[in-house]
TrEMBL record:
Stated name of the protein: Uncharacterized protein
Superkingdom of origin: Bacteria
Length: 188
């Protein structure tokens, strides 16, 4: 019991440090790092194991960055029970911020591709841009930093909650995350 308390306390200290160091919604470095660890955690290392449709990353990033938001979403995920109004409002705000973040993520991904850290490929069948990480081009210490342990735990929690996440269409992901929880969504 004492060990869990110490872990929670350590996580709180890390979160305080990260709040001081990063603006989680707009910081290029924080978003870039989270994109890279998402791709690594999902095993997206080549064209065969790619992440389908990079725009989904925009909707996943807030969940990876915020444990309480992830827990709120998991509470209602696929149980076909509409959340209370205050939770719907939190999900609605998260959805809108995610929509606005897509352009930023595009810019980051094109920069990462230019630096050969990721590969992007047009998916003719789905009409999407798919992505994978080029791990050999990224320093191992970058992907294994203890500073982002909480985000890695959140990625694993999200993987458990949403099966086949990396291959889902954006439409299906948006339905499961937002539409089924009372948030009106639209596709680009």
């Amino acid at each position: 019991m004492e060990k869990n308390f110490e872990n929670d306390k350590d996580n709180q200290h890390l979160n305080v440090k990260k709040r001081i160091m990063f603006n989680k919604d707009e910081d290029y470095y924080f978003i870039t790092y989270n994109i890279l660890i998402i791709l690594k955690a999902f095993g997206c290392k080549d064209a065969r194991t790619k992440w389908t449709d990079y725009t989904k990353l925009s909707y996943i990033l807030p969940l990876v960055a915020d444990s309480s938001l992830l827990d709120l979403l998991i509470r209602y995920l696929d149980n076909y029970r509409i959340p209370p109004k205050q939770d719907i409002e939190i999900l609605r705000e998260t959805y809108f911020k995610s929509r606005l973040r897509i352009q930023l993520i595009s810019s980051i991904l094109f920069t990462l591709e230019t630096n050969e850290m990721v590969s992007l490929v047009k998916n003719e069948k789905r009409h999407t841009i798919d992505i994978w990480i080029n791990q050999e081009k990224i320093p191992e210490t970058l992907l294994n930093s203890d500073l982002f342990e909480v985000e890695i735990k959140n990625i694993n929690k999200l993987r458990s909650a949403i099966s086949r996440l990396k291959g889902l269409s954006s439409k299906t992901l948006l339905e499961r995350l937002y539409k089924n929880n009372g948030v009106r969504v639209w596709e680009a």
